[in-house]
Design goal:
Helices cover about 45% and strands about 20% of the residues. It has about 425 residues and is of the alpha+beta class. The protein has three domains: about 110 residues, Alpha-Beta Plaits (2-Layer Sandwich), CATH 3.30.70; about 100 residues, Roll (Chitinase A, domain 3); about 160 residues, Trigger factor, domain 2 (Orthogonal Bundle). The strands form four sheets. Strands 7, 8, 9, 10 and 11 form a five-stranded antiparallel β-sheet that branches. α1 packs across α3, α6 packs across α12 and α9 crosses α12. It is extended, with a radius of gyration of 32 Å. It starts with a strand and ends with a strand. The relative contact order is 0.10.
Amino acid sequence: MSLKQEKTENKNELKLTITVEAEKFDNAIKSVFQKSAKYFNIPGFRKGKAPFNIVERYYGDSIFYEDAFNELVPDVYDKEIKDNKIDVVSKPHIDIVQMEKGKDLIFTAIVNTKPEVKLGKYKGIELKKVEYKVTDEDVEHELSHMAEHNSRLVSVDDRPAQKDDTVTIDFEGFVDGKPFDGGKAEGQQLTIGSNTFIPGFEDQLIGMKIDEERDIKVKFPDDYFSKDLAGKDATFHIKLHSISYKELPKIDDEFAKDVSEFDTLADLKKDIKSKQEKQNADRAKNEMEEKAIEEVSKNTKIDIPDGMIELEIDNMENDIAQRLQYQGLSLEQYLKMLNKTESDLRNEFKDDAKKNITTRLVLEQIVADENIKADQKFIDEELEKMEKQYGRKADELKKNEEVMNYLDKSSKNEQAVKFIIDNAKITK
């Protein structure tokens, strides 16, 4: 195999011409044939039993070319990139120059390479200290949240529904006198005032009694996710089945014993405050780091290639698709719910993609310029977390080159951010 590199007229772009020996391409053709032989049905032969030369003669020499190319090229391309230490940051745009049995396979790949990073000021930048204090009100708010979580519903049968009650209803919606998809439900539980239904719906349930039926009129918001319903007037027929209210527990020592490991309310409060202080410290640290990176990025000149941005958007899109899958949704379904196209989504990702790339390149350059080394303690802690998360031993993970490269880079980037902050002028 051989590789020829040429700079194009575009900045940070290379044209790679890769040549693969004829023998390797011919072997790839035979490999494809062996995998697909069973599907060929040629007169005079049992299905799948026709020899290679007969199949070639019957269907034409080029029948296996495309599959052979697709089988061979990814590994060839990756090897040439690695062996020649080309820092590619985009998907390759591939064109075939020569593809014929008995001849060398020749193809080109247009790629973007890592852009030059011209760091500006990153030592001595001015930062305002970020600090969040924990107040008594914060602690009381958490206690109230815990009480809400441990509340119970008490049934009511001697009064109409009122705000903050939880009711069970049947409903059916109509637009222009016709029912619409998703507008009907039975035994729906709803807390009045939660604002989970369209504006005006919940308020009109106030005053309803058990077994009462009522028609209520609402208007769908203009920005409602369903275009068919957006801005339309609707009538819902309601039947109310039950009314209940939330009874909160008394917040005292007994409450502390029920909801925590502590015997007194005072000890529970101390624990809440301690956890909130830790959360606030982490929040402040993250904000300081973000501001530090933003400030350094402002002073940095980078000409980010379009291909690099597109690849980052691909990664972001794949990430959201994976997270949606865990929720039982496809990306297509998600986009339909939002009334957006994939193109809309990718456009929305563009600014964040540029920011992500800039952050990575800036930190990598600081790591290089300051000769920053990975922190073994950081790596060990991350391996421990991964061990618990994935159920794989740390020693096993250490053997994975991809995992260790990721942790090495993560540690260095972490150290680079710390370097910026340690050398910054911090004011209150």
